[in-house]
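Thread: "does anyone have the structure for this chain?"

Original post by V.I.:
We have the sequence but no experimental structure in hand. Need at least a predicted one for the grant figures.
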Amino acid sequence: MPDQLISHLREQEHALVEAIRAEHPERVERMVSPDPDIILGRIGITYLSPARPSGYIKLFAHDFLVEEVSRDGSIVSLSHASPFESNEDERTLWADLIKANISGFNATNDLAHLLKIEPGQIGFAGIKDAVAVTSQRVSLRGVKKELAETLEHEHMMLRPVRYGNGAIQPGELSGNRFTIVVRTAPDQSIDTLMKQLGQDGFLNFFGSQRFGPRLIAQRLGQKLLQDDTDGALQIFFGEPGLFDVPLYHDLRKALGEAYGDWGQMLAIAENFPFTLSNEIKVLKALQRDPMKTRLALAQIQEQVKMWVYGYGSWVVNRYLSELVEQGKNIPDEIPLALMEQGLPPEYQHLFEHDGTENYLEQLKKFPYVQAAKRGIPGRIKLTDLKWQEIPQGWVVRFSLPKGAYATSCLSHMFRLYSGWPIPEWVKKEEVDALAAVENGTIAPLREKFASVLERPILKEEAETTN
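Reply from O.Q.:
Generated one for you, tokens below.
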């Protein structure tokens, strides 16, 4: 089981960052807001109109609420706990996991630590947003109700639902319901856009979270599928993100300059145990055996999966943009890029351009990364669509099927900003989004998670994933 809570690593790094801020505030401040369309271009989306109104999301984690929709259509509610059902079979506890401003990976790590189980004993259907307040059903093998109820963690709580057997498997959900505060400049009407979106849906492109905060997952995956593990490692350690603040930009540069001297790199990385937690794992493995680079990457299998799937997502995004820009119809279903049946003809020119057409051979070297078996819808329809004007902008409510991205949907309506610096037109008052759409209140969770919800999200406090 994990040796240390992710939250402790975050606190350790935050103390260092705050000390640097006190002496040199310019080191941890971004001077210019990242342009949303530059970000989209980095991930292959070039067809959206630059005339879209501007919107800002995730000023607070509770501006972005996600509730899982189970296979039977029931919603794992943020505002209402399910009554507990007893059962003679107590091998598995089923519970609702409510988390605030923490990634699914880090939540699983910390749950395993606190419940004294292995991460593999925790089952969940889907990954939920990190900078958000989310609810989902989880299965906890070998955990008792009383232990779950007394869980103490500033980012999480468990609501036991029932005992039983079995476990939740990835993909065992219908989708997610989103309730999102979009902060806009004054007099930004979205009625026409929303009605059109409700009628036509939106193109099913992969959102920026698929590519990590540095927006480089696709390039890392491309290197691995080109059989260039060393090239992937150099980018992984040493390439700054396009919008990194100076502190983290220079940190990446220092790692890049020291590349190959694993001990020196580890000494640099260990000062940032939260942001560079995955780098530290790989560096320790490279210290043990510098020649076994793929074995070193196996220490961070979930990250490697994200890199490879990020490359496939990039291919799909480029293809969708091509179709729109060439005036072609969007098929009802499109293949994923890395299909187990072999290279889809729709993407052949992109794979040949990227030098990745032999991806099936390369995937054999990473047995924990699976090729896709089926495609995805080319266009996504929304359900439960509702929007409510508020003084800060709008609260938007909609449900999406599994695998669809709320930010992809919103990007068809807005030039979507998040992070720092906050644009001048953003009104900064807190919003109870559930109350705005007359679906309860966020107040009890706002109180429960006060320590992580009481202030706006700062870039260096947000979840980091390579």
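V.I.: this helps a lot. The chain has 18 helices and 14 strands.
O.Q.: and The longest strand covers residues 175-184.
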